[in-house]
Structures are given as structure tokens and as C-alpha cells.
Design brief:
The structure is a single chain. The protein is mostly helical. The chain has 3 helices and no strands. Helix 1 packs antiparallel against helix 2 and helix 1 packs antiparallel against helix 3. The longest helix is centred in the first third of the chain and has 35 residues. The mean pLDDT is 90. The chain starts with 10 loop residues before the first helix and ends with a helix. 82% of the residues lie in helices and 0% in strands.
């Protein structure tokens, strides 16, 4: 399935995508904060650290999604700004 270009999408569609991406990114950041808090707590208080060390890899890999989300938000914002300047 071919993805539509940002220029081909309506302004309402772009605004809804931006809102969705912002909410998903916010939830992901919240979950990562909780995850890293649990990891730090577990590493400091528990004797068996193997599961917490494995969770570090999960947290770091999930952090790799954030730059992509911020890049998508920046592209959508710049497209919306260019449309607002044209009007």
C-alpha cells in the first residue's frame, strides 16, 4: 500500500495525524519513564538483576522510535505552516 504524500492530504487529515502522533509519543514517553524507574528500582533493591538488565534493552529499543516520531511531527508542522502562509 502506497503512502500518500503530505501535500496530497487535506489540512484536517494532517491536523488529526499530528494530534495522533503527539498523543502516541506522549504515552510512549510516559511508559518509558515508568519502565526506566522500575528498572532502576529493581537494579538497586533486588538481588537477581537478570530480568532488569533485559528490560534495559527493551527500553533503549523503544527510545529508538522517538526520533522518528519527532521527525514526522516536524514534517507535518512544516507542511501545515506552509499551507497557512499560502492562505
Amino acid at each position: 500500500m502506497k503512502e500518500q504524500s503530505l501535500k496530497d492530504k487535506t489540512t484536517e487529515k494532517l491536523q488529526s495525524e499530528l494530534k495522533t502522533i503527539k498523543s502516541i509519543t506522549g504515552v510512549l514517553i510516559g511508559v518509558l519513564i515508568v519502565l526506566f524507574s522500575v528498572i532502576i528500582y529493581g537494579l538497586l533493591t533486588k538481588e537477581n538483576n537478570s530480568s532488569f538488565i533485559a528490560l534495559i534493552a527493551v527500553g533503549i529499543s523503544c527510545c529508538g522510535v522517538l526520533p522518528l516520531q519527532f521527525t514526522n511531527m516536524k514534517k507535518i508542522k512544516s507542511e501545515l505552516d506552509s499551507r497557512n502562509k499560502d492562505n
